[in-house]
Design goal:
Elements lengths: L3 H22 L3 H5 L2 H21 L3 H5 L3 H24 L7 H17 L4 H23 L4 H20 L3 H4 L27 H4 L2 H21 L2 H11 L1 H6 L4 H27 L9 H14 L6 H16 L33 H15 L3 H16 L4
Helix pairs in contact: 3-5, 3-11, 5-11, 5-14, 5-15, 5-16, 6-7, 6-8, 6-14, 7-14, 11-14, 12-14, 15-16, 16-17, 16-18
């Protein structure tokens, strides 16, 4: 009998150890959501079903009134905003000249398609390479100054690119008319971009969306890998206090330049995809309002988050194209008759309010900034955390 309390205590201690080990080994929700495989998997699923939910789902599409081309455009601008957020949200550098990389890549991709190769993959690589090199050159000069001086320098370079494309280089860019000689071949030499995907046209639509969606997933994977690497940690340290980061031995200027180049590269990917999407490069691609739009998208969705800028791009483009009642562009389609339903009529969601879409967007932006400083994505994260606490989760 004297040994029974000891055995009971030992059993309780063993059980407590097992419970503690099990609790420690079970991943928390935060740890799961930060897993690279989870992020890439969720992104892939979301990209795959997005055009169906947005444009063709019987109930949801009837409320959102979206369409296929807008779903594609949202992903393209989402890549642009996500890359910009790597600079603003994680490094703390505000650039007003990112249109130089978006527009430069768009023009480079268009000229490459007309003069060298019409392969969509090579077109993307050409535009992205041009944007990365441009970002290195402009960043090398602009980052010699900080704060408002850096922002003004980037704005000046962006406007210089605009006026260069308008007049001195008009023989290449087309001047005010933009570049109209874009030539697009088949994807991988087999698939026509404007044709629906056989068997999956009801879900993802055309091969063009498949290309854009695949690149978007790869960009999310790359951004997630960067943010969870030592580079991402240094970017955050620079954002918090660049002087302290320099005191511990980090070459802050070099890391800022790398962040600038990475951000410009993402902008180049998006600009190249925009050329493929529209088969035309407008002169406004270089204009300062393009840089302003990506700033608004990032802040609206939530700077400092991976998916916030993509959500902000979606909200911005939705207000611009649906709430405003702007008619979408349609491309003549010559495919099989069973896919003709993919080409829809122009949509007007708020007839009578279309002329005030800038005001509506401004009110939304002010409300988000004042009420939800972390953006729409931050609001969703807070709501999700509250629901998990109510459900007894971690």
């Amino acid at each position: 009998m004297s040994d029974e309390p000891t055995e009971t205590a030992d059993a309780a201690e063993d059980a407590g150890t097992v419970v503690e080990r099990t609790d420690r080994e079970l991943p928390s929700w935060e740890r799961v959501t930060e897993s690279e495989w989870f992020v890439v998997g969720v992104t892939t699923v979301a990209v795959a079903i997005f055009p169906w939910l947005f444009a063709r789902a019987p109930v949801i599409s009837g409320v959102l009134r979206g369409y296929q081309d807008l779903a594609t455009l949202i992903l393209i601008w989402g890549i642009f905003a996500m890359g910009f957020n790597l600079l603003l949200g994680y490094t703390g550098l505000l650039s007003f000249g990112h249109a130089a990389f978006w527009g430069g890549a768009a023009y480079a991709a268009g000229v490459f398609s007309a003069q060298v190769s019409s392969s969509p993959i090579l077109v993307i690589l050409a535009g992205t390479t041009f944007a990365a090199l441009s970002a290195w050159v402009l960043g090398f000069v602009s980052l010699r100054r900080g704060g408002i001086y850096f922002a003004i320098l980037t704005l000046a370079f962006g406007q210089m690119a605009y006026y260069m494309a308008l007049s001195p280089l008009a023989w290449i860019t087309g001047g005010e008319n933009g570049f109209t000689g874009v030539q697009l071949g088949k994807l991988l030499g087999v698939f026509q971009l404007r044709y629906p995907v056989p068997g999956l046209g009801w879900l993802v639509g055309t091969w063009k969306y498949v290309l854009v969606g695949t690149v978007a997933v790869l960009c999310v994977a790359a951004a997630n890998r960067i943010l969870h690497s030592p580079y991402g940690m240094v970017f955050r340290a620079i954002r918090e206090n660049d002087q302290r980061a320099e005191f511990v031995g980090l070459n802050v200027w070099r890391y800022k330049l790398m962040a600038f180049v990475i951000s410009g590269t993402f902008a180049g990917v998006a600009g190249s995809l925009f050329t493929i999407y529209s088969a035309y490069v407008p002169l406004s691609s270089f204009y300062w309002t393009t840089s302003g739009e990506v700033v608004i998208m990032s802040v609206l969705g939530g700077v400092g988050s991976l998916f916030g800028p993509i959500l902000g791009a979606g909200v911005y483009l939705y207000v611009e194209n649906i709430v405003s009642g702007v008619q979408k562009l349609t491309v003549p389609f010559t495919g099989p008759s069973e896919y003709l339903t993919l080409v829809e009529e122009p949509i007007v969601l708020m007839d009578g309010f279309g002329a005030y879409w800038h005001l509506i967007l401004g009110l939304v932006f002010v409300a988000v900034v004042v009420l939800f400083p972390r953006g729409i994505w931050g609001l969703l994260e807070d709501a999700g955390s509250a629901l998990r606490r109510l459900g007894g989760g971690r």
